[in-house]
Amino acid sequence: MIEKIKRLKEEKDVVILAHYYVDGEVQKIADLVGDSYFLAKKAVEVPQKNILFCGVSFMGESAKILNPGKRVIMADEYADCPMAHMADIDRIQKVREQYPDVAVVCYVNSTAELKAYSDVCVTSSNAVRVVDKLPSKHIFFIPDENLGRFVAEKLPEKEFIFNDGFCHVHTSIHKEELLKAKEAHPEAEVLTHPECTGDVLAISDFIGSTSEIIDYATKSGKAEFIICTEMGVFFELEQKNPGKKFYSVGHRQFCPNMKKITLEKVLHALETLEPELTLDEKLRVKANKPLSKMLELAG
Ligand code: 13P
Ligand code: SF4
Fold first, then answer.
1. Average pLDDT across the chain, whole number
2. Tens-place pLDDT, residues 189-199
3. Which of 183, 199, 201 minimizes the C-alpha distance to 191?
4. Is 201's pLDDT higher than 90?
5. What is the CATH topology of the domain spanning 173-247?
6. What angle, 0 to 180 degrees and rounded to 10, lies between the N-to-C axes of helices 36-45 and 281-298?
7. Is pLDDT of 299 > 90?
8. b/e per residue, 193-226, with b = 16+ CB within 10 A?
9. 108 — pLDDT class (breaks 50, 70, 90)
10. In this structure, CATH architecture of domain 83-166+286-298
11. Which atom, in ligand 1's list, is nearest to the CA of 193?
12. Which of 116, 19, 124, 20 is nearest to 74 (CA)?
């Protein structure tokens, strides 16, 4: 299967992009693996005509929004991030009426529709940097409340309005369980994704995106780490750091949507160049503005 995948991607001019949360065996056959920001940037740079996305819908949508001329194929068209839908357009309009100067900042984990009603997108690795560059005092942060509160804490001069979206994977990492893991591994550093709740962030040593967590652990002189994000990152963490130990906090660090991607589905997508991700052109153009603005401001 791996040989067939390698041959077909060359023959059909396909680049395979994968997120760190997909299974290790899928990460292994991908051309590029990364966090959401890296994948959005790479989607613009790759020379191939076709992009095969191993990740959830919003990631494929971002690739299509930024590259209308390319064919974007999803390894699984039903792999969707529930948080991407957790904001609503009526509320955005109401907040805009209430605060005329407001900047609507949309976490990239969002539908193309939500992006189309926003001013700028952010990912977990560039959110503080991008929001800091916005002239508006009022920031309406959608859809993730936890990432919004993390950014707000770093930028006290801004006034944030929050939305109640959340990631069910990260919010199921509880402080009590993390305290037990710390007790069991007193030497370990705690590395956490900002989608976790504030009480978990407060007892963490480092907070960052998936790529930033992997970089931090790789550069650190420590030998043990407790990882507060989806278990898919363990593959790259262990590949890059054979001598180091990585512990999870509980068994719920598992994104069922990311785990829908299998080698069989990748092969099928390469054979058929389906399912293709398509977007209404008017929607694509509107959603392109905040995404492109993110790339410009994040640098
Ligand atoms: P990153 O941007 O850190 O890769 O996170 C994506 C994501 O879905 C987190 O749950
Ligand atoms: Fe969405 Fe959470 Fe899965 Fe990331 S881990 S894709 S935010 S459900």
1. 97
2. 999 999 999 99
3. 201
4. yes
5. Rossmann fold (3.40.50)
6. 110
7. no
8. bbbbbeebbeebebbbbbbbbbebbeebeeeebb
9. very high
10. 3-Layer(aba) Sandwich (3.40)
11. 3
12. 19
- Summarised one tens digit per residue, pLDDT across range 222-273 is 999 999 999 999 999 999 999 999 999 988 899 999 999 999 999 999 999 9
CA distance 290 to 86: 18
**How much is the pLDDT for 9?**
97
Whether the pTM exceeds 0.85: the reply is yes
Mutate to test the pocket of ligand 2, among 170, 211, 227 (most ligand atoms within 8 A of CB): 170
Write the DSSP string, 169-225: TGGGS-HHHHHHHHHH-TTPEEEE-TTS-HHHHHT-SEE--HHHHHHHHHH-S-SEE
- The answer on pLDDT for 120 being more than 90 is yes
Domain 2-80+258-281 fold is Rossmann fold (3.40.50)
Ligand 2: does its nearest atom lie under 6 Å from the Cβ of 270?
no
Task: Indicate which residue's Cα is closest to atom 9 of ligand 1.
Answer: 195
- Common-topology check for domains 2-80+258-281 and 173-247: yes
Q: How many CB atoms lie within 10 A of CB 264?
A: 10
Q: Are 118 and 104 in contact (CB under 8 A)?
A: yes
- Cβ burial, residue 106 (10 Å; 0-12/13-18/19+): buried
Question: What is the average pLDDT across 291-297?
Answer: 95
Domain spans in the chain, listed from the N-terminal domain onward: 2-80+258-281, 83-166+286-298, 173-247
Is the bond preceding 194 in cis, omega lying within 30 degrees of 0? no
In ligand 1, which atom is closest to the CA atom of 167? Answer: 10
